Amino acid sequence: MDDLIVQGGLVAGQQQDIAIQHGRIRAIAPALHTAARERLEVAGKLVLPGFVESHIHPDKAFVADRAPGLHAGGRLGDPGFARHRVRGGRPVTGRPPFSFDRATGRLNGATGPERCAALAFAAGAKVSAPMHYRGFSIGCRIVNTMIDRREIMVLLNDDARFAFPFGDGYWSLLLDRGFVYEGEIERFLRSIADVDYGFVDGGANFGYWSVLVSSRPFGSHPVIAIEASSANAARLTRNSELNGGRLKILHRAVGATTGNKVWLSGAKHEAFRVGEANGNDADAGEHVEMMALDSLLDQGLVAPGQRLVIKLDVEGMEIDAAKGGQRLLQNETVIIVEDHGADRAHTVSRYLLGETTCRLFVFDPVSSRYEPISDLSMLDRIKTSTVFGYNIIGTNSPFWEERIRSIPPSTRH
Length: 413
Known about the structure:
Elements: E1 2-11, E2 14-21, E3 24-29, E4 36-41, H1 58-64, H2 79-82, E5 84-87, E6 90-93, E7 98-101, E8 107-108, H3 112-128, H4 136-144, E9 151-157, E10 160-165, H5 183-191, E11 198-202, H6 208-213, E12 223-226, H7 230-242, E13 247-250, E14 253-255, E15 261-265, E16 273-276, E17 286-292, H8 295-298, E18 308-312, H9 318-323, H10 326-329, E19 333-340, H11 347-355, E20 359-364, E21 369-372, H12 377-382, E22 389-395, H13 398-405
Parallel strand pairs: 1-4, 7-9, 11-12, 11-18, 12-13, 14-17, 18-19
Antiparallel strand pairs: 1-2, 2-3, 5-6, 7-8, 9-10, 15-16, 15-17, 19-22, 20-21, 20-22
Helix pairs in contact: 3-4
């Protein structure tokens, strides 16, 4: 186990993690998920060893030391020193995050290069949309070599602030005002804003849905956000703080049972792979404790009979997560789960339809409605892409079934 993981800092011009063990650097890599006693998030900051500045200009120092208000240098402890770093040979001031309002398109607090980059990200989203955004993350990486990384806060609505590293290859799609993230889920959640329910965000990532569902336009619902990755959980916590600390956050992996350890691997924060920890890979990945959804009842975090909407984005653990939530699924619960387009056997839907008593619905682009799934063959027609997931809605509740069926056809094209 490492003593410390320094996460997301700029090392040799790239965003990388640093593993410290027994007082020495053990590894430097873009994404380290090994177990550690402590993790330090330094995204957007330059990471350097202690050093003595040997590159000086004596002539300029002579002038500076004799000019009012100017000094040739600073000590490491000086506040002015701590506020500055150097990237690519340029001095850069550590600044607070800048913001982007999706409603108005206004970008506040951005530098000239950041404004150009934001336009590039928005244009890249539009160009890559017909290809299901293939290549967008590559374009982000190219642009990121020309800008200083810092945090951007996107105003999703007047009561929802969502922050992420500017230039992130996944969430920067939000800089295109025409981009709609998982529109079928947004439409469903908007349609039930008036219902008194609790939201469980399984695999919450940075907390996009948690922030939205807890906002006023979506009904200000209480949220339990569950995230396995410690790096993602730190971002999730940050977004909770930006929104008044209104999220209940659990750093756990969602699975069939409670208490077992699992490990995470992968380079993309939106697609970490989850596996069981065993003797052969005990030191691989980031270890995290698993929890069953039904344990939310045992812990008193949700009440028996409480109306719930559970969204699962748990990267291959959907069936295990459903197995661990059998009691909840028998109650007044809606489950939203991903059935990936690459899975032509429709494994997740097949399990829910055959092994549970849930009635399933899927958004049908032909009718623009949420249609009941009576035969899995209809998914052969609807799942046209193999590069992303399709959201399936399941419930045992007559109340929720009636609400789903009553949603009018979509008018968005």
